Amino acid sequence: MNLDSPDTPRAIAAAETPRRARGRPRKTADERDDGNRRQELINGAARLFRQQGFAATSTRDIAAAVGMRSGSPFYHFESKEALLGAVMLEGMQGALLRQHAALALLPPDASARERLRVLVRNHFDALLGPDSDFIPVMLYEWRSLEATQRSEVNRLKDRYEADWVPVLAALHAQGQLGSDPVLARLMIFGALNWSAQWYAPPSGRSAKSRARASLDDLTTSALQLFLKEPA
After folding, report:
1. Which CATH number covers residue 204?
2. Residue 202 belongs to domain spanning
3. Given CB 3.0 to 4.6 Å as the disulfide criterion, which of 111, 119, 133, 144 pairs with 46?
4. In angstroms, rounded to a whole number, what is the distance separating the alpha carbons of residues 213 and 200?
5. Rounded CA separation 60/6 (Å)
């Protein structure tokens, strides 16, 4: 008797038995929302780290800010330090993508000066525009990162700055940038990044000592400060 024949009781029973789905079990509704909840944690942590500082912000604060129980962040991140690393990686990845998109809109024959304007304007947007908590956190909480996290963020930071190198070199060759391009890049980033400390948008309320200007105004002023007028 052939037990594998399609007419045997064993074969009939096997055919009638529903097959078990392969792969991982289907996620519940809460599990399917894991990605969104994780992103909410990153966004909330970025905001609080910027407002209060990393050391002064607890995971309980972050959980409360996004409507979670106090222990829930540890379902997504093993520690507050891991969450800080995620905030910085998110910031650099977003800034890099926006920078590439902004440069891609330029015509192929755009001048180095036009390219620098786009780079500076995009950088101000990452620092001071909507959803701009991420990069300031990276600037002021850098020492709180673990070594592995710092290496990952540095890799993205190097890619971000690499777009500036040929532009500054071209401006130096044209006589519009008086300083050595390497030193100029460091000085430019230092000046631009410090604006996160004193800038106030035109419509905001702040101390009179703070400058009020649009991001386009800041970009124009920065170019006037860094570059000579073309001959």
Report:
1. 1.10.357.10
2. 80-226
3. 133
4. 7
5. 62
